[in-house]
Every structure is written in structure tokens, then in C-alpha cells.
Amino acid sequence: MRILIISLLLTSLNLIACKNGDTTNEPLVMAKTGGRWGYIDSKGNWIISPRYDFNGNYSFDTNFSEGLAPILSDEKYGYIDKTGEFAIPPQFDNASSFSEGRAEIRMNGKLGFIDKQGEIVIQPQFDRAYQFYDGLAPVRINKKWGYIDKDGEMVIQPQFDKAFCFISEGLAPICLDRKWGHINKDGEMIIQPQFDYAGPFSEGLAFIKKNGNFGFIDKQGEIVIQPQFSQAYNFSEGLAAVQKDEKWGFIDKTGKMVIEPQFDDAWSFSKGLAHISKIDPFSSNYKHGFIDKTGTIVIQPLYDNIKTKQDILFVKVAEKWGIIDKDGNYIAVPQFDKIENDM
Predict the structure, then answer these.
(1) Which residues, including other chains, have CB under 8 Å from residue 96's CB and lie 6 or more apart?
(2) What pTM does this model have?
(3) What is the dihedral of CA 240, 245, 247, 252, to 10 degrees?
(4) For 52, phi and psi rounded to 5 degrees?
(5) pLDDT tens figures, 48-107
(6) How far is residue 342 from each of residues 215, 248, 263, measured CA to CA in Å?
(7) Which of 22, 73, 142, 260 is positioned for an S-S bond with 90, CB 3.0–4.6 A?
């Protein structure tokens, strides 16, 4: 499940006393206190005070993106701006964050897309859909997946059993007859379906699953790191997290294990740090911290959970969330009941 989520999103995942206007690119992150949701900045200050009962049902991405965020009000979804005011009135059965000027919305059981003025530019007609990346969005209709452009034209006809976004490097993973390969934006099969699973490309390589193990291929479909790992993540900053013998470590692009498997869980590097976890021998619970690219623990695994949202390091201690800096010092002491996607 971790691999599927990462490959779909990569992104993974991201993303506030009230201010007038949005004068900076300050990231805003959804947080909950006292039973209500609002938005905080990177210092933990409330920018949109807690006033919402619920921000979304989490089947969609519900972060601020392109200046707007979907919010549930009176059982319908609309979009607020960074002052907390509705820029698009509540009218949809469900709604997602904007990507490339388009956002998924659900009406009467079908998915379509709106623009930033709230106009329906692609009529609700799809059973499933993902966000736009690189000008295209995967959509499912009549149990098959294809790709539409921003005008709603079906530029790659529905034919795949599963299909993911063109997240990076011009190729997207698709599935046919239970085997995975990659297509380009013209719909041409660049890597024939042959793997049990395949992720998106990152830094020229993509993880694949074959005969129960994970390895990596290049953009010609050649296996460059043999399948030998129980799980794997995409390459980031030259390293990829892999699981071997129930422990996580990191390999380089030659497949060399540069950080030996020693962690009970691990995630990709971002800005020189990787989130890792170890099982506390006393409580048997996972404790979370960070390592650098030498494998040195730079923030001790002391926290009940960690989430990185737009380069903000959130940590959970005794059921409350706070914010730390990259030295492990508190910027905001644990005080929030929940943060986005922590249900």
C-alpha cells in the first residue's frame, strides 16, 4: 500500500488570528484544535482561525494549491482563498485541490473538472480521475483508463486496466492484463507491460516488482538493479529507500547499499534528510526521527509520528502535533489535535 500511494502521488503529499490577503508564498497547513479545522503557517500561527467542521473526506487531496483549498460547508464543497473567504461557493458533492488550473469535482456520482473561477470546463462523466500533470489527466470510463487534456478531449483512448499520472520524465505507468509497463504522452508503449508492478520514473529510474521482489529499470526498460528487495521507493537526491530482510536502508543508482538496512521503516530523502523509524523495545511502538545522507541520525527517533508538509517538519508527541526545525528544536510546541491527512 505504501508503494501504491507513493507512486500515485509522489508526492507524495503537501501542503492559518486571520490576515488580510496572501502577500507571500507562505505555505498553509490544515490543523485541528477544539473540534474545528483551520490553517497554520510554518511557525504554527493561526492564519485562518479554526472555524470549519471538516475539510474533506480524504478520498481527494484537500490542500491549498494555486491559492485555493476545498472546504466542506453545509454538506457541499467549495473553495476558500487564503483569507478564509469562499472564492468558489459550496456546490459540489466532493472536490480536490487544483493542479495546472484544474480541479476534480464530483456531481451526481461522476467526476469532472472546474477552472479557478469555479466554471465546469469538463463535464462530470468519469467514474474515476486523477489530477492533471504535464497537461494530461488519467480518467476511467466504462472500466477502462485513458487520458484527457485540459479541454476534456480524450487524447489517449481508454484501454488500460489501470493508469497513473505523468508525474515526471514524460512517462506514466499503466497496467494491461495484470502486467505493468510505461507509455509516453502520445500513448505509445515505451516499455511493454511485463512487470508485476511499476512506479513512475524519478532521476531516470523507476522501481518495478518482478517475481515478488522490487528492483529498478531505466527508461529503455532494462533492469539496472536486479529485483531483490521486499519494498522500494523512488530515487530522490541520488538514493532510494529499500527494504531487505525486514529492515530498511538506502541504495545508490548502481544498487550499492550505501546506508545499511537497520531501520524499521524509512522514506525518501528531501533536502538532505530522510524520515526513519525504529521500534521502541520498551513500548513496541514506532519512534520517528531523521537521518542525513551518511546514515547518521541527526534528529533522534523520539516522536510518535512525523509528517513533512511543504518543508515544515511536524512531530507528534502524546497525541498532539508540533513543529520542529532541522536541528530538532521546537518552533511550535505540540498543541494541535490533528494536521492534514491525520485522521
Answers:
(1) 60, 61, 62, 70, 103, 104, 105, 131
(2) 0.88
(3) -20
(4) -100, 140
(5) 999 987 655 545 566 799 999 999 888 999 999 999 999 999 999 999 999 999 999 999
(6) 31, 24, 23
(7) 73
